[in-house]
Design a protein that fits this description.
Layout lengths: L9 H12 L5 E4 L9 E5 L4 E6 L1 H4 L12 H24 L3 E6 L4 H18 L1
Parallel strand pairs: 3-4
Antiparallel strand pairs: 1-2, 2-3
Helix pairs in contact: 1-4
């Protein structure tokens, strides 16, 4: 468990590199809404865009998630809780006027970066 990083994972670093190369500047690993104890991986505070890069195992990817062989009940409950928290986070942020993007670790990061750039550009037009 100690080796599982909370931030600066490979997919996060790769996505941030692509976003930076696109000319975007952002905040890393912060709470989009300070009162809510949820941290987004990449945040554009002014534009109100929050990006989460989710790991397949921890967030229950429909394509790659598979049940654990040891302590299956514990892990199943943990992952189910993570999925429920993710849905609640999406709803809370959307209700507060934020655009939420969730990217799986296996997604094409080039396409994901383009989606983020488009979301930020749209948000800037609304400012």
């Amino acid at each position: 468990m100690q080796a599982n990083r909370a931030r600066d994972t490979g997919p996060e670093l790769a996505l941030r590199s692509l976003l930076y190369a696109s000319g975007l500047r952002y905040r890393v690993d912060i709470r989009p809404i300070p009162e809510i104890r949820r941290r987004a991986d990449v945040v554009f505070p002014k534009e109100r865009v929050a990006v989460f890069v989710d790991g397949c195992f921890w967030h229950g990817c429909p394509l790659h998630s598979r049940p654990a062989k040891k302590n299956a009940e514990v892990w199943s409950a943990k992952i189910k809780g993570n999925m429920e928290r993710d849905a609640e986070t999406n709803a809370l942020l959307a209700a507060a006027g934020w655009t939420v993007l969730r990217i799986w670790e296996h997604d094409d990061l080039g396409a994901a970066a383009e989606a983020v750039v488009m979301a930020v550009d749209e948000a800037r037009q609304d400012l």
